[in-house]
Amino acid sequence: MEQLLFIILSVISVAAALCVIFVRNPIYSVLSLVITFFSIAGHYILLKAQFLAIVNIIVYAGAIMVLFLFVIMLLNLNNTENQEKRSFVSKAIAVVAGGLLLVSLVGLLKGSVLTPTTGGISSDDIGTVQRLGKVLFTDFVLPFEISSILFLSAIIGAVMLGKKDLKDH
Amino acid sequence: MNSFLPELSNVYFNYLLLSSVLFCIGVVGVIIRKNIIIIFMSIELMLNAVNLLLVNFSNMHNDPNGQVFVFFIMVVAAAEVTVGLAILVMVYRNTGSVNIDTLKNLKG
After folding, report:
1. Of A55, A79, A128, B25, which residue is the least packed, with the fewest Cβ within 10 Å?
2. Pick the CATH number of B5-99 from 1.10.287.3510, 2.60.120.10, 3.40.710.10, 1.10.3720.10
3. Directed axis angle between helix B36-61 and helix A65-75, to 10°?
4. Residue A28 falls within a domain, yes or no?
5. What interface predicted TM-score (ipTM) does this complex get?
6. How many folded domains does chain A comprise?
7. Residue-wise pLDDT tens digits, A15-72
8. Chain A residues within an 8 Å CB radius of B14
9. How far is A145 from chain B (nearest CA, A)?
């Protein structure tokens, strides 16, 4: 059953990811990426990371993709006439290069020893809010606080960059 | 191929394969597209492949630390997209295009 779900979700995510990079209209790319994120959230549920699945949907499919859609519609990029002209040869070379990267990655990972560690806490409640919150606010409290500074600087940077003209100030 | 088949029964190895495939799709997307927005989305795809791999290893080792790393990757991705899209809007305002080939003023 899990194997079947894994295969279905994998096919969906790979097909949607291929749609992201090969579809011509940027709106369809964004929607395909949303489908990819939903299938990856399904993978997270299969991997017993329930909270991350929800966070993935809320943050990625909810916030980031809406930002992308907003920018595409704001800049009116969903017309297909000003398309990129890239020759078939260079596209084919790029696909071959990516395929070679995949082959070398798989060849590298093929002999890896993947023995699961057992013991410790039970595997079913790793991904719960309780367990993750405990780890996040004890072991990782310093990176957590530093990430707030990162967000603050990102907000300031976005506002500064988005201003109409910087010379007024 | 025969030596390859026993590995497919290992669920952790399957996730390794899936993450590699998604990452390579992201790399190809960065190479073949010229639209900056699509390139950003390919980068998001690569980040998600890494996230999937981290969650897989977290599940394999029974350790929640990997999932906390995924949180931080999401934080960095959100900040990166915010600033990147702001830069993209500014570029569009200045050049009237989102094609990366128009951004060659720094070329010597």
Report:
1. A79
2. 1.10.287.3510
3. 180
4. yes
5. 0.87
6. 1
7. 999 999 988 888 999 999 999 999 999 999 998 888 999 999 998 888 899 999 988 8
8. 6, 10
9. 11
